[in-house]
Amino acid sequence: MPRRAEDPRWSDPGLLVLGSLADGPKHGYAMVRDVEDTTGVRLGPGTLYGAIARLESRGLIEALDGDESRRRPYRLTSRGAEVLGAQLVAMQRFAGMGRRRLARHAPAFGGGA
Amino acid sequence: MTTRARLRAALVRAYPPSFRARYGGELAAVAADTDRGWRDHVDLARGALRAWAVPAFGGDPAERRRARLEATTLTVLAAWSASLLAAATFSKAVDDPRLPGLRGVAWDAGRTANGVAVVLGAVVLATGLATWLVLTVPAMRARRRDVVVPAAAPAAVVVLWLGVTALVGLFARHVSVRGSVALTGPGGALVLGVLAAWAALTLVCAAACVGAAGLALHRAALSAPRLARTTLVAALATAGIAVQAAAAAYCLAGLFGPHAGLDPYDAVLATGAVVVQVGAAMTASVSAGRGIRSLRAELPSGPGTVA
Fold it and tell me: What is the ipTM of this complex?
């Protein structure tokens, strides 16, 4: 079923950036591509760098010295990994609970395990 | 360069200076690589608005704190300027000539607003002069034209404004009849046009002064301890702006009675002035709060506390 613009969303840009950096450092364009490939969400440049600035100011990610200032890579800090892990556990719990309830009351939309 | 690339570059320039200094190059590169046309343009515009409204500072913690204090100083300076112009407009609307309803508590509130404006002006100008000296003298010694030119610009703008204001005063005296200027009848449109142009010039001059001062402050990259002092004065100024706005709003509320003598023209001017003052007070409060939180975070932990 296609997603509509007014449907509730889970795709917080900050969370998507943290998720993208979970498997290693990336620069901005690589994050855009990775997030689009893995989630189907296309982050605009303003949204991406707004999220990067907020995450960096909270110490959840940090910049690495890149060869070019236009392609600066970022990586998760240990605090960022901790926050991402906690969010993913909460999302997994929520997803499990939602699917169990759907399976009981609307089995057609409950999906497989 | 294509129109699309020019628009993209203009939108990247719309971000706050501290954001551009940290992310500008990367942001421009990613915007050029993704290039989704108007969607990216809207996204960049929204991002720029958000970066001004809810600033986030990257880089190492010391630089983040310095950028936060600089942003607070500049935001409160802009809010104070807007509040000062609004206070003058409010005073013109209700006290020139004085309205019959401006007495009792409304008069006290109006006088409080004026008194706070004068004290606040003196504090801000004294701090501004001290900061200007700290900023300009080393820049002149180092022959840093990028700092000296914007630092000197407000003085030139004020001289220009005073000159134009004197000419407008002479014109008003020339066309006045028994001490009052008629805005209706033959020649009324010309008088109104001159006064409107002068008011617009005043706004442009104020914006130019604040913009140039901000540019000089940003380029001089003052130290965090120096900016901590300007932030404390900004917090004091914020309290003054808030008191001024509350007093003006109270005074205005008292002037909406049946015999207050507030005509529709003055009512619009005074209400607009109060709206600007309240907006300035809210903006300054948010920014000063963030600056003070940043200063408190800098304080060392007491004995026995765990970081």
Answer: 0.82
**Tokens in use for B307?**
């970081």
Write out the residues of chain B at the interface with chain A, using a CB-CB cutoff of 8 A: 19, 22-23, 25-31, 33-34, 36, 39-40, 42-48, 50-51, 56-59, 64
Question: How far from B262 is each of A50, B247, B253, B270, CA to CA, in Å?
Answer: 47, 17, 11, 9
How far from each other are the two terminal CA atoms of chain A, in whole angstroms? 19
Give per-residue pLDDT as tens, B91-111: 888 877 777 666 677 777 777
| pLDDT mean by block of 10 residues, chain A; 113 residues | 58 92 93 92 93 90 76 92 92 92 79 52
Q: Quick check: A24 and A65 in contact, CB under 8 A?
A: no
Distance from the B225 Cα atom to the nearest Cα atom in chain A, whole angstroms: 20
DSSP letter for each residue of A53-107: HHHHHTTSEEE---SSGGG--EEE-HHHHHHHHHHHHHHHHHHHHHHHHHHHH-H
Per the CB < 8 A criterion, the answer to whether B251 and B260 are in contact is: no
Prior bond of B17 cis (ω within 30°): no
What are A75's strand-pairing partners? A62
Q: Where are the beta strands (DSSP E) in B67-225?
A: none
**pTM of the predicted model, to two decimals?**
0.71
Radius of gyration of chain B (CA): 23
Separation in Å, CA of B69 to nearest CA in chain A: 14
Ranges in chain B, pLDDT < 70? 1, 59, 100-103, 177-187, 257-261, 298-307
